[in-house]
Amino acid sequence: MEAASAEKKSKSVEKKIAARAATAAIDPLLNDQFNAGRLYAVIASRPGQSGRCDGYILEGKELEFYLRKIKSKKQH
């Protein structure tokens, strides 16, 4: 990752990156997870794929849904 940031970038690429950074926003729930040092994710590997685990980080409505489920489970 550091090697990619160390290489020279054209002015148009720098302009694109600056424009995206100005409008980029992280979901507050996702930010809370980063601060806690723990992320909720879903394993999405296909059957028969031994030794490999694919998945994705939960965010948005899906994250809210699972947080509600976890909270209701803890109350019972």
Secondary structure blueprint with pairings:
Layout: H1 2-6, H2 11-23, H3 28-36, E1 41-43, E2 55-57, H4 60-75
Antiparallel strand pairs: 1-2
List its salient traits.
2 strands, mainly alpha, flat, 8% strand, 76 residues, 4 helices
What is this structure, in a nutshell?
With 76 residues, the protein is mostly helical. The protein has four helices and two strands, in the order H-H-H-E-E-H. The protein has a two-stranded antiparallel sheet.
Task: Please characterize this protein's 3D structure.
The chain is mainly alpha-helical and 76 residues long. It contains 4 helices and 2 strands, in the order αααββα. Strands 1-2 form a two-stranded antiparallel ribbon.
What fraction of the residues are assigned to beta strands by DSSP? 5-15%
Which stretches are poorly predicted, pLDDT < 50 over at least 5 residues?
A: none
Major beta sheet summary: 2 strands, antiparallel
Global geometry: flat
Rg, Cα atoms, Å? 18 Å
Give the strand order, joined by hyphens, for the main sheet. 1-2
Total beta strand runs: 2
Tally of separate helices: 4
Helix content: 55-70%
Rounded mean pLDDT score: 85
State the separation between the terminal residues, measured CA to CA.
44 Å
Order of helices and strands: HHHEEH
- Which class best fits the helix and strand makeup? mainly alpha
GO cellular component, one term: ribosome
Organism: Rhizopus delemar
Protein name: 40S ribosomal protein S8
Pfam families: Ribosomal_S8e
